[in-house]
Amino acid sequence: MACSNFSRLLQLGARACTSTIASNTIARQSPLVPKLWDLNVRYYRKMKGVPRHLPWFPPKPPATPDYQSEVVDQSEENEKLITEVSKEINKQIAEDKTGRLFAIVHVAGKQFKVTVSDIIIIRGYWPPNIGDQIKLEKVLLLGSKDFTLVGRPILNRELVSIDATVIEKTLSNTITHFRFRKRKQYRRIHFYKYQHTYVRINSITLNGEVNKKLEVEGLDRVY
C-alpha cells in the first residue's frame, strides 16, 4: 500500500515539473533546431545557386530550346527521287519483268497475304456462292521482288486488279464448347461448326503506270 502511494506521488511530481518547463526550451535542446529556425526555410526555393533536383536524376529539358535550328526544304530532292523510282517501276511493268506479284487484301474483316493460285478460307457467313467470279478491291499492299506499293490505306482500284473464284462452301470440323461451374452442379457441352468459304486467287495484275494522275476515274463502276 505504501509503495503504490509513493509511485502516485512520483507521477504527480513529474507532471508538475514538466508543466512548468516551456516547450521552446525543450525544442532548442536539439543542435539542428536553431539552425533550421535561423534559416529562412520558406524562401529556400527562391534562393539562387541552390540545386532543384537530385544529382542522380537529370534535369528536365526546357519547353523551348535555347538554340534555333533551320529546317531544310527537301521537297525537290524527294520529288526527283519519286520520279526516278516511278520510271524504273513503269519500265518493268511495260517490259513485263515484274515477276510474281503478291498482295495483302482485306476480305470479310480480315487481312490475307496472297499470290497467284493461293486458296484462302473465309470463316463465317459470306454471301458469294460456288463458282462466282469476284474481284478483290481492298488491296492494302502490292509487292514484287524489286518494288512494293503501299496503300494509304488502300491502293487505287484501277491500278491493281485481283480476280478470284469461289470454289467451295462447307462447314468446319466439330468444335466442342464445355462450360463448368464448380460446386453448382452445372455442366454444359455444346457442339457447333463454322461456315467456311474457299476462295482461289486467279490473277494479280498491275494496270497502267504508277504515280500517274488520271483525269477521270471510276467510269467502269456502277456505284
From TrEMBL:
Superkingdom: Eukaryota
Q: Name one GO cellular component term.
A: ribosome
Instruction: List keywords of the entry alphabetically.
Output: Ribonucleoprotein, Ribosomal protein
Query: Which Pfam families does its entry note?
Result: Ribosomal_L21p
Can you tell me which family this protein belongs to? Answer: Belongs to the bacterial ribosomal protein bL21 family.
Q: What NCBIfam families does its record include? A: L21
Q: What is this protein called?
A: Large ribosomal subunit protein bL21m
List the source organism: Trichogramma kaykai
